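hiii, so i know i said id send this last week but things got crazy w the move. better late than never?? heres the sequnce for the chain we talked about at the cafe, plus the structure i predicted for it. fair warning i was half asleep when i ran it
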Amino acid sequence: METTTHKVALITGGTKGIGFGIAKALLDQNINVAITSRSSAKAHEAAGKLNAQSKTDAKVFGLKADVRSLKSQQEAVNDVLKEFGQLDIVVANAGLGHFASIEDITPEQWQETIDTNLTGPFNTIKASVDALKKSKGYYITISSLAGTNFFAKGSAYNASKFGLTGFTQAVMLDLRQQGVKVSTIMPGSVSTYFNGNEPSDSDAWKIQSEDIGELVVDLIKMNPRTLPSKIEVRPSIPPSK
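okay and structure toks below
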């Protein structure tokens, strides 16, 4: 176990997109970061990239973990504690989307969406709550504007994100008296690899992953007396329809 004065963060789904942007922003704040992926190779590759870009003496390490499994999340948290000795920030970012009408979406797609986007954050906080209580830490979920705005072909995704938004707010009430801060961030269109998108210049109008990273940094720097518990984030000027 490493003795460190750095704060320590765990980010699920941190190998690309929003999770990667958050990891880089925290690393730039001299915070040690663990990122998870269902692929060990991808986790270690992303950690290597982040360490190579680091401007501080904090470090990143990659872990294979699956948010759909409570045991896997418990093992990830234990690995972080063995590596760094503490856990101060947990970002439940891992997510996916299946979009189809109720006539076409399969039971398997429904289950995978709920298991990843809703049960995943449950597993993550269940695994880390004792460590966060000890550090008076911060638990942040990445929900979506789809967690308050429904749309056609969004039955599974809307259900998962509506559920995640409500879940996070209830957890906030459960843990606030124990010194654990809890927030959910609800982005609109973000330039990521989500749902097969390939970020390009045409995404310039969208929220960028580093913008969400900056927002997470702002949250953890907020005066402890103040808690922005639910944050909606939109592109400033989306294309005209």
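btw The chain has a mean pLDDT of 94. thought thatd interest u
miss u guys!!
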